[in-house]
Amino acid sequence: MSTELQRELDWLYSTQLFGIKLGLEGITRLLRELGVLYPRARVIHVAGTNGKGSTCAFAESVARAAGYRTGLFTSPHLVRFNERIRVNGEMIPDDAVVWLVRLLRKTIEPWEVKPTFFELVLALAMLWFRECEVDLIVLETGMGGRLDATNAVPKDVAVLTPIGLDHTQYLGDTLYKVAGEKAAILAWHRPAVSAPQSPEAWRAIHEAAQTMDTECRIVSEPLTQPLGLRGEHQRHNAALAVAALRTLPGFLCSEAELAEGLRRVQWPGRFEEIAPGVILDGAHNPHAMRVLTATWRREFPGQKVRCVFAGAADKALDEVLELLSPLVEEWVLPPVQSPRILPPVELAEKVRRVSSAPVSTPATLAEAVAALPPRTLICGSFFLLGEVKALLQQAPDFRATAQ
Questions:
Q1: Among residues 82, 81, 89, which one has the least CA distance to residue 65?
Q2: In principle, which of 29, 170, 201, 335 could form an S-S bond with 163, CB 3.0–4.6 Å?
Q3: CB-based contacts of 254, cutoff 8 Å, min separation 6
């Protein structure tokens, strides 16, 4: 990484000290001053609890296969910041990050109340999408929906993936409240599509659709075509993405282009097999863990795992571990460089309450992944996955040693 890029990213990351500020006033002002509040491109906006990133990836891949110039905004990144912003599948170049962050710094310098990290990154993405003259923008919501920065961008189609309890300190302590926050991405007279939801969540979605005088169509049938991502749940994510694209007025895509886009889609950290029998998955809440364990049993029937796990302290770790424990024959709980991650010693106490399998707490993450035999599952926090990927990229002989 160049010194210039490191300097600009250091400044950008320093804005995380401003914390999370839910609301659209600041981001609306920022996008307006930069001239990107109303993009020329069509916009698909995706919210939900699980499957957001995969659904975005399917939509982008199919649109690109159909000949559209695409912009994709997602979070978090695993290894490199640039992963968050892609045009036609390519990460934003380092030099573009440098000059766009400098533009952002200059823009907000006189502001008394500074934008948050997420607001700045979204603004950076919208600037890059304008620079590259994209035809279609796919935006993944950061958190919630109603007051999430991405909701300041006008959308053509709103998409709701499966909704469960998450970020309850911000979104509410019931499924109805959480779903109401996420369903608030629905826009006036603009179409919407949704994955099947629980009755409580659907009640909130239906009310939001009525308020916006629109219809939210449920997409319940999974796709049967070959996909680039594994797991039965990905067939539902793919169906939702295709439904969103077909809802866009004038969107054209042949069956051959559809098949190509579905087959070539890539999305790291979602049941990603990095070596034979070695799986990375960012399942960090109960809904995602149910999907992960079901997928493991389908792909590797009757096989237990050596599980490398880390989780954020603010997640429902007790339930996550209880769901995971029947698959695990050995736990490896490494340290991860994030203040949000529960320390291994405290995590080990939770593990021992739900599992009799042996537990180890290696001193470093490098020690935890020094050997990765088949039937290894690395899961939990995306912070863990990102650090693992970064370590393995530094080990050219990894694939040989993992087998």
A1: 89
A2: 201
A3: 66
120 CB-near residues (< 8 Å, 6+ apart):
12, 15, 30, 101, 104, 108
How far apart are the C-alpha atoms of 134 and 39, rounded to whole Å? Answer: 9
Please answer whether residues 161 and 48 qualify as being in contact, where contact means their C-beta atoms are separated by less than 8 angstroms.
yes
User: What's the pLDDT at 346?
Assistant: 96
Place of tokens 């029947």: 326
Relative orientation angle of helices 52-65 and 255-264, to the nearest 10 degrees: 140
3-class secondary-structure state, position 87: strand
Q: Are 144 and 163 in contact, with CB atoms under 8 Å apart?
A: no
Helix (H) or strand (E) segment spanning residue 307? strand 305-310
Q: What is the DSSP string of 340-356?
A: TBPPHHHHHHHHHHH--
Average pLDDT, consecutive stretches of 10 residues, N- to C-terminus, the chain (403 residues):
92 82 88 97 96 97 98 94 97 98 96 93 98 98 91 98 82 91 96 97 97 97 96 96 96 97 94 94 92 95 96 88 97 92 95 97 94 94 94 66 46
List the structure tokens of 328.
């695990």
The answer to whether 120 and 158 are in contact (CB under 8 A) is no
CA pair distance 117, 42, nearest whole angstrom: 25
Sign, Cα dihedral of 351, 353, 356, 359 = positive
User: What integer pLDDT is reported at residue 400 of this predicted model?
Assistant: 41
**Taking every pair of C-alpha atoms in the chain, what is the biggest distance, in angstroms?**
61
Residues 95-104: b if buried by 16+ CB within 10 A, e if exposed:
ebbbebbeeb
Q: Name residue 163's amino acid.
A: I
Q: Which residues pair with 376 in a beta bridge?
A: 278, 306
At position 94, the amino acid (one-letter code) is: D
Report the 10 Å Cβ neighbour count for 191. 21
> Do residues 262 and 236 make contact, with C-beta atoms less than 8 angstroms apart?
no
Residues 387 and 288 sit within 8 Å (Cβ to Cβ): no
Q: Which token pair is 166?
A: 């998450």
